[in-house]
DNA sequence: AACCAAAGCAACCGCTCCTAG
DNA sequence: ACTAGGAGCGGTTGCTTTGGT
């Protein structure tokens, strides 16, 4: 159980994002505290989890909130209070952090009026040319050590409990996603 | 063009909850 | 039933961006 004594903090770099996405594509999520070592990141497990959950995982839609989403947030906040994860569960393409920020910055002091009239959802912002992948430096699977190749306290079956399951997340989708989140 | 203030957002911290042993 | 460790959540901070002067 060797942990980094001083894990790196601050804004994530594109390289770190690429490594984390590529690793999770291959092995899935098995232990946030141990994973950073195998990914080759000097981040805490918490930091990796947060980055993945809020920005890197598939199916997130960054950008403006639609009017419907905004109304849902206002209504559920009245019903549930600041239970952002519960509210986020009803908006599958948004994260609790997104919703929390949106509430605190735009709706909190103004929740009876619409915070913005321009709420068009810019799906087109997510458009990307997957053919541009050749110029990107995406880590390959061989860049990562096999988790069970190291002396650890978990078993191979533990490490690979989600292996192959995530193969629906193809390299093309990875490239699309990296573009969509504005990294490239 | 330079400066400043406000707004927005990404990330960290500390706590609670959950689960396996 | 108890404990330890991991995961998840909400509050908060601080950096970056944007708009005004």
From TrEMBL:
InterPro entries: Homeodomain-like_sf, Myb_dom, Myb_TF_plants, SANT/Myb. The keyword Nucleus applies. Pfam families: Myb_DNA-bind_6. Keywords: DNA-binding, Nucleus. Residues 8-56, 57-111 form the HTH myb-type domain. Residues 4-56, 57-107 form the Myb-like domain. Transmembrane segments: none annotated. It is found in: Nucleus. This is Uncharacterized protein. It comes from Hibiscus sabdariffa. The lineage of its organism: Eukaryota, Viridiplantae, Streptophyta, Embryophyta, Tracheophyta.
